[in-house]
Amino acid sequence: MKPDALIEERFTRTWLSRPGFWGWIAEVNNRPLGVRYMVTSLVFFALAVVMALTMRTQLALPDNNLLSPDTYNAVFTMHGSTMLYLFAVPFVEGLGLYLIPLLIGARDVAFPRLTSFGYWMYLFGGLIIFSSFLFGEVPDAGWTAYTPLSGPKYSGIGIDFWLLGLGLLEIAGITAAIEIVTTILKFRAPGMALQHMPLIAWTYLVIGFMILFSFPVLLLATLLLELDRAFGFQFFNPSMGGSSLLWQHLFWWFGHPEVYIIFLPATGVISTIIPVFVGRRIVAYPLILAALLITGFVSFGLWTHHMFTSGIPELPMLFFTAASFMVALAAGIQIFAWIATLWGGRPRLGVPLLYILAFFYIFVQGGLTGVMVATMPFDWQTHDTTFVVAHFHDVLIGGAVLPFIAAFHYWLPKMTGRLGGEFWDRIGLGFIFVGYNITFVPLYIAGLFGMRRRIYTYPEEMGIGTLNLISTFGSYLLALGFAIALASLLWHARRGRPADPDPWKGGTLEWSMPSPAPPYGFRRPLVVGDLYPLWNPVPSESHSGDSAPRDAYTEELEQASAAMDCRPAGWRGNLVTDGLNGRPQAVQSLPGPTLLPFWLAVVMTLATVFFLAQQYMASAAMGFVSLVFIGWWLTREPVFDREEAAVLEAQLQVPLWSHGRHTTGWWAAAGTVAVLFTVFGALTYSYFYLRLYSDHWPQGGLPLPELGSSLLVFALLAAGGVSQFMSSLGWRRRSRTWVVFGMAVTLVLGVGFVIVQMMVLHAAPFGPTANAYASIFFVLNGFVLLTVLTGLALLGGALVRVIAKQESFTAPRLILWLQISEMLWFFAVFAGLACFLVAYLVPHLL
């Protein structure tokens, strides 16, 4: 039964954006924000291309003096940083935020305000990095910022712009990962089991988890380096017990997974486009999925692949070589599956598929050379030569940029309602393909002749001038190809032929709606029972003639789908489904347009700017204001029509609110704990790394931490964990008195731990700048204090809700508050006890 016209009109109006400039700022819907991410990243891409052309012009001739050494270093640093941090990863996230809800049958992402906040953090972080040009202090230590070149002795304030701006970018990336993972797990269409999920959605699920366990490590590394630079900490100062190699280990734990975070969504694009242009299902879906999972997991075992010449022992390097080969095998599985899919059909050579075919040549070239540099003896010869430059451009341009342009062509009708072009797009692709190979094939040869990378010039006697001149000519052809391709896309986005809802005859859910996609996405969520639901739809009637009869489960899914048709009409809402089989579990209220994420991002950016200006009190004040905004954000209750909610609950036979793993909030909290766990793990690794390479521990004859008093201090925290566990038993038994008592005891013990531990640290016989041991000791304890304070704040908020008695003790939202606050508190207790073992007990034992 279809809803009446008034309900449909109200539903449509609910999902409309606000008009005007402030309406644009307040936007939280995933589709405009996803486009905003991609457009912003393309602007940064254009800037990076200009810088690349500048470098290639400098290297066109031997002994050229177009750029000075310092200027070249600055341009090189900003080119690499822009391409990797400001273009590739944000574009991947923007494409995912736009596509994922459409691919899985959702109306929006799980946390629309978080999407808005992430975009503003990304934009402001990029502006902070580029504002270094205005002050004449451009980062110049390379996009990897190796210490000691990026330390306080050898670099200026430009690196502070880089570190602090990059910190905002990492926060944006982490929020996008939590958003994407939660949306995929909990917002899939009714019946969309994991085996029915498109491969591109699988790639985003994999990279979402990869981001949660890699980006926090870079965020920590940038914080530690900034502490070295701003306050005299000693993490990376070898003369004070620190280690320059520690930065490389932390950086590449992030850096190599980042390559696959960029590459895997590109493979998802390819696995989506090829079946459509061939007109058949993807071959070897389970094998491709296994390759994705293997790549995501093994990519964390590759970081020393970049450090074969750093002097580490040969035995562990053999394991990293084997891991590199394993990833190459996983990529090969996907390549052969795509070829098999093409082989069995009659491909339509549309522009998206032509970009994919160009990808095959360039990426295979990069994959083969990747196996070469993963072999230690070969890497020892070509490390830090232009051979490596050509290799990773093969992987990043061939493996990512070309599929991304194919994705733009393929989904342009859904984004704009217009079709892309043909003639100029093919011309652009031709220039890109020819220009790319003319640019980078000579660099392979020059690298084998010994040309170093990251140099601003070279002597004529090396005999590589002709190779570099050819490479520079190719770079201009390549840039011209990109300009033609992107200009054609922009022109056709506004003036192209109007597109049908499904111009490609695709099989995934996004082609079931009008083009461009309406603000609400799906008016009625479709029931899914196949990998290609439009090619093999679920029968719409149980008496549908030749169609197979539907079982009771399918009938249940259809009833849920029908109940959500233009519902809820008075507020934004989406069906929450089971993470395994897509069975309806609840309805989640989604926020509408709001300025809160924007102002929070502004305040956090101001805190960063004040820190950059060394106005630390003002920075701390802005940090406190940020905490107030976050508290307001977390405590704002959703607004909805209770009468309509009751009707919807009755029709769906699922609750409007739920708790535990049924909810997106629980999964977001779990993602946050994963981030905190990763940071703590990286800190623990740093502690033992510094300990392993120190002759004496503690360094510099510093006294061992006093064991007896510290045991009593951390016993307070352990007791707080026990009391909170007893409180959790109380709320499971619905005893409000026991819950209040247990949480109050936990708060008292937690506050006592914070006060006593701060007194102990203040009375320590050494400060955090004494040496590397002192620095890591204080930072470990500081991390525990911050997590304990966060846990106490959440427990306090939950206790206020319990005492207020404004909600039934069985109310799902109250239970969810208790579950989330407990989750973070128990992590804080774990971190505290682990810190005691690492920083207090182990030094007495070893």
Automatic annotation (TrEMBL):
Keywords: Cell membrane, Copper, Electron transport, Heme, Iron, Membrane, Metal-binding, Respiratory chain, Transmembrane, Transmembrane helix, Transport
Transmembrane segments: 37-55, 83-105, 117-136, 161-187, 199-225, 259-278, 285-305, 317-341, 353-375, 395-412, 424-449, 469-491, 590-610, 616-634, 666-687, 707-726, 738-760, 772-803, 824-842
Annotated membrane topology: Multi-pass membrane protein
All copies of domain Cytochrome oxidase subunit I profile, residue ranges: 18-519
Primary location class: membrane
Heme-copper oxidase subunit III family profile domain: residues covered: 679-844
Compartments reported by the entry: Cell membrane
Entry superkingdom: Bacteria
Record-stated family: Belongs to the heme-copper respiratory oxidase family.
Protein name: Cbb3-type cytochrome c oxidase subunit I
